[in-house]
Queue: 3 jobs
Job 1
Amino acid sequence: MTTGERDPGLQPERTRLAWRRTTLACTVVAVLAVRQALRSGPAGAGMLAVALSLLAWLGFLVVAHRRVTGMGTSRPAPLSPRHALTSAACTVALAVFAVATLF
Amino acid sequence: MSEFTRGLRLWFAPERVREEGDTPDYRFSLANERTFLAWIRTALALIGGGFAVDQFLPGLAWGIRAGLALGLLAAGVLCALRAVNHWVRCERAMRRGEDLPVSRFPALLSLVVAVVALAMVVVVLFGWEGR
């Protein structure tokens, strides 16, 4: 998995686990979004909001997966600004769709 | 304020972060990334809390429930946006060899969370039921 000498402080490992934890938190929010839709019944707007929430969740998963696989080297490159922006945008999107299903 | 607009420009032309200064030690970049992820998790927890208030407190009057949920969701959005902003500013400061930026945001967020928690205590104690 790692090439060259490993980092004595296991920094790439810790960062990878941080991505995993964050993905897990994102999944919990996505599950709550689906539950919200199931509770309020099959209405058009609610279904659309849930579909978009799942899309945001998928986007987050893709970014996390790219980052985690890129962490395999002993000296990984810094996080790209595009990935940071995308993961934050997915988080904001989940909140916006939550507001949409609130009413 | 000009510092803020310059930071905002960095959001949409992020490759410009790479143009100045030298690349810091990869461990510093990774530590900054983990801080960013911790803030994103905080944002996700607030958003999950907003969903939870709406779904698991059906006894509350609709106005109070929606107000609490909206407050938590808005805090989550702010937290996510600020996570990117802080990450970009830290990355830039590290490349330029400057001091890391300080922020009032943690104090602000803890005040918001404390107010929501107090509101919940009051609601639970006095049984502010709907209808």
Job 2
Amino acid sequence: MAKLHIKFENGDPDRVIEFNPADAPFHHDGRPGSILDILLGNKIHLEHACGGNCACTTCHVVVKEGMSKLSEAEESEEDMLDKAPGLTPTSRLGCQAVVTEPDAEITIVVPRFTINLASENRDET
Amino acid sequence: MVDRIVDHNDDTRSIFLRMRERMPLRSLPGQFISILIPLGDETRRRAYSIASMDSGVIEICFNQVPNGRGVGWLFERAPGDAVEFMGPFGNFTLDAPPQVETIFVAEGTAIAPILPMLHRAREASHAPIFLLYAASDRAHILYGIELEALAARDANFRFETMIAGGNILARLRDEVEYRWIAADTNRARQFYVCGVGKGVIAIRDMLRTSGYERRAVHYEQW
């Protein structure tokens, strides 16, 4: 089983998900087996304003451990990350980073600005 | 809530959303809103580009797609219906008038994010601005009157439309290659490309490998 540790910069409690990557997809948004797919499938919210289609940066996460266990970023993801606030060398888009190994152990941080961006932009007509 | 509806043709529609309470809403030309669409017992988010925003009224433009449940829900909305959304979001934007020749390439409803960019681009720019816009048939060339009015007002802006039948992005790719790669060695232009499917990526790759700077080629793939 693979293991995904999730830390939230806004102080929400840490979460851990154990899963079998071969069971993907777990939800319907983001690439099958992506961090977004895994989180949503386990009822953990990660913003994804564009629907998980690599058209925004609201699912930006920072990988703290296990970067090599994720699929390599494609040019479209790199282009999008270029414009992400708070970019780090281990930034990824949750909708594009797919867990590739069955026994992967990965730790990610959901940055504060990712959470704030979503909540500050929420409107209702 | 839905303020009004405009049908462009048999399968393409604009919905104008008016805020129930006047709230400050800032967007950059090219951004989208994320509409929360109730489907069964869950809510899905779908991104729709802002085609225009005037006095707090946001226009989105979309067309019917096979098995498109989200867009099907939107087609069922009527004036007065509530629509919940988040945003604006997105990085496919033009936030300042361009300083260099700028080429916009779009197909069908993907003209939506380009339209506000064109308005922004011609506000204070003296750089040439060109739009190459293709659709499957004449009825699916949208905002023709608005584009003609823009071109009539601004000598720096020109546009051409192309009826491309089935494989629209492949035709656009050929045109882009002919006009801005094969025709000269100028690689100082910038591009904004929007459309549906991998054809957008093919145009991006062709431009970048032919000598245009990576950051001069902006794109959004739907």
Job 3
Amino acid sequence: MSLLEVDDIHSYYGESHILQGISLEVEPGECVALIGRNGVGKTTTLRSILQLTPPREGTVRYRGEDVTGRPTHEVARMGVGWVPEERRMFSHLTVDENIRIATPPGNSVEAAFERAYSAFPELESHRGREAGDLSGGQQQMVAIARGLVGDNDLLLVDEPSEGLAPQIVAAVAEALKTVAEESTVLLVEQNFPLAMDVADRFYLLDHGTVVESGSTENVTRDDEMIRRYLSA
Amino acid sequence: MTGFELTATALPLFAPVEITLDALSKAALYIVIASGLSLIFGLMGVLNFAHGSLTMLGAYLGGAVMVALVSSATGQGMRLLLFFVAVAVVFAALTAFGAGVERVLIRPIYDREPLFQILLTFGLVLVLDEAATIVVQLAGLQPQTEWQDAIGTAPEFLAARYDIIGASTRGLYLFEALVGLLVVTAIFLFLTRTRYGLYIRAGSEDPEMTQALGIDIRQAFTVVFGVGSGLAGLAGVMLMWDPRFGASVPLGVETLLVGFIVVIIGGLGSFKGTVVAGVLVGFVDAVMSWLFINYIDFPGLPELVMFLVLVTVLVARPQGLFGVSEVGGH
């Protein structure tokens, strides 16, 4: 059984028909990349899985259970984590508090700190600072750490390299690889080489539908098609 | 009344200690009045017009507890103890009432425009004020004037005046400042030291991200609307003993106005801003009241100046002293 099955979902922002029948599957342990130009529906797909933008048609199944239309916090508690675009720090909370709030009730907060700061030692010296005062790369680390401490089996990671300096992107890529070894990841990434490096499989989106999918190893052979859908 | 008029008396030019003591008691009252409004708006983006009416209900309910339990034979210390019993009763009752209002009335209209919330909570003002008027009249009281029996349950040592560094002040004002400090400390600890406080601060900044971390934000809305209503009631209990206010039906509108002024000056949704603005407005009010009593024969002066401060802040910094440009959401 797939961990996540998205079956022919249609999602809208107001009257705009964004997702026009997306179907995809993610198996346990995989890292799957969603690629495609800006505005083809990658972020909306992640939002629809979390029911932040509930699909009007189609179903989202997690561990075989239909979660379509369920409240977002229930989907999150089932083990779906979100590392959103632009990081979405609680900028007035400290780094520690950002980690603390992502720790499920009943779990040890100390253990969560240990997990977060061993994954990202650089954050350790900034624990008491407001997250809004950190650099972009550090904020991305906090965002990923929030996903890590949440007991998540599936992490939805959206544009982790966006707006970061090249040398920081390399560090984030390393962090993503570590995360991908431990949990299942559905990754949206504009940085094509990075996406192909980290992911096992990919889905290529265009105009709210999946136009191609396959193993990232075969991608070079399909260069022609990839270039057609990725270049503006 | 002859309008503006300087009186030629041999008064001190300024009385800093007296004004400071008056300011601290007023600041404490204003902060407690405004804190519930501030918490509710910060997390939920709901401007609760019924907040003042809840303060009015709290004043009557607290007064009723005191009048029922206090007799002329009740000792002074016992009266003080019963005050805290009244606080507990009113806080519990209004927290439950507020939570119920959120679940039944406000929850169905979160997805509508803010105008619906304003109309709904304004409608609640009319219902609560009218209901209170009927009940108070049935109890043989005059709804428009302060409930003197409730004021009379205050222990004598609070009604008495004391000399502090050459200034004279009522014991009650010191007591109010102390209760205000306790309430602010309690809210601060709730927000910074409890898991729920963390949810509230996070939810005020980004409700969507908060939900995506597995937090039931709707449940947090119910809790905050309840606690905010409980705080409105607590403010009422503080005002029930104060001869400057007292339990009456118009107390609702009176406190709502002050609450809005403080919350807007401080920045909608910022508790720190509410505290700072409460102190600021308390001092402005105290200075103006002192000027009014001693020099300028114009009773509207304190309120006029409060509104001038409000206008100045809105022109210079529309989001308020500590506000962020956008808060709240569902």
